[in-house]
# Entry
Amino acid sequence: MTSIQAQLTQDLADVSWKDIIPHCQRDAVIVVYEGLDIVEVGVAIAQDNIAQVQVWVEEQLLQKPTAQQLSLWNQFPEQPFSVLIVQPYVLISAPLSKSPQNASL
# Structure
């Protein structure tokens, strides 16, 4: 494990949607989709691995939250997400629980 990977693994946190909203308002949130390791994404961003990040974007595994997602998540402000800050971005994974509001993700 690299030192960047170790640091990002340590920085990974579970955060309620209501605490992520301010980051959305400044357009800093990137959604990391299921099957993709949020720490691996963070390492690629931190190391400016543009080629790998571009592949994930093209495969729609990384993207800004959609209006539909934002609307849904705003209905459940306590919904927990895995969050990793890699300045200037805030990476979030799909909601942690398997509740009905996750069906559209």
Summary: The first strand starts at residue 13 and ends at 16. The CA atoms of residues 42 and 86 lie 6 Å apart.
